[in-house]
């Protein structure tokens, strides 16, 4: 099966599930994100181990899975996680390497890859919950639409890059990291993302959530999301190239692992959260 049919199959199966859980929000979304984070962290630590990183995989996977749950609990007011917790967690992981890795067990790489894995998977994916309950989004419909937009634009960017790259070809974007990607594909990704963003805001976000962007704000938001998505894709490709692996896993037969499917979202979700704060405006009908 060629790459395009595999992409379509994954989208047809995964999209309705993701949209349904986004619409439900609350504990259902937090649990879903937690599961994704745990699987992504497991794959990340597998890649890190192949690179000689010697991460504390069990610790990293557990904490990555707990981050979205902690965000959910804090939103409900069940717990309050002070900012210093992040620093204390990093110090605890560094301390653990003293006994679990020792002087000859690559303690620096072990601590570094463990902390990075948590931030890269559970930390970034937890922004899905933050976007679902973004301050400006009043009501479940608005919250769901605010989260779905960057997810949709990530898919649009990837699709635009795929078709533009195949149709135009031309110079490679960064052949040492990802030989298949082209400059034309990168431009096609940006243009497709702008177009889909404009349609989504006009037909869905503005009439159903009373939220929008100025024309320049829309362009900046869409370009930022596409650039973030492409950098996220390149970053994961770089990790795999260092480890000498083709795919991050086999959870999607013939189509890679969870990291391969979420690589762009790791970058997109936090960027979308920041850009919304700067650019999203009320748009009463």
Describe this structure in words.
The protein has ten helices and four strands, in the order αααααααββαβααβ. The protein is mainly alpha-helical and 285 residues long. The protein has one domain (3-282). Strands 1-2 form a two-stranded antiparallel ribbon. It has a two-stranded antiparallel sheet with strand order 3-4. β1 and β2 (178-182) form a beta hairpin. The longest helix is centred in the middle third of the chain and has 29 residues, at 140-168. The mean pLDDT is 89.
**How many β-strand stretches?**
4
The number of domains: 1
Distance between the termini: 47 Å
Residue ranges: pLDDT <50 for 5 or more in a row?
none
Radius of gyration: 19 Å
Mass-distribution shape: globular
Helix share of residues?
Answer: over 70%
The total count of helices amounts to 10
Query: Largest sheet, if any?
Result: 2 strands, antiparallel
Strand order of the largest sheet: 1-2
Listing every helix as H and every strand as E from the N terminus to the C terminus, the arrangement reads HHHHHHHEEHEHHE
Write down the overall mean pLDDT. Answer: 89
Q: Strand content of the residues, in percent?
A: under 5%
What's the arrangement of secondary structure elements?
Blueprint: H1 3-24, H2 26-50, H3 57-76, H4 84-100, H5 107-125, H6 127-132, H7 140-168, E1 172-174, E2 178-182, H8 183-209, E3 211-212, H9 215-243, H10 258-279, E4 281-282
Antiparallel strand pairs: 1-2, 3-4
Helix pairs in contact: 1-2, 1-7, 2-3, 2-5, 3-5, 4-5, 5-10, 7-8, 7-9, 8-9, 9-10
Concise account of the structure shown:
The protein is mainly α. It is built from ten helices and four strands, in the order H-H-H-H-H-H-H-E-E-H-E-H-H-E.
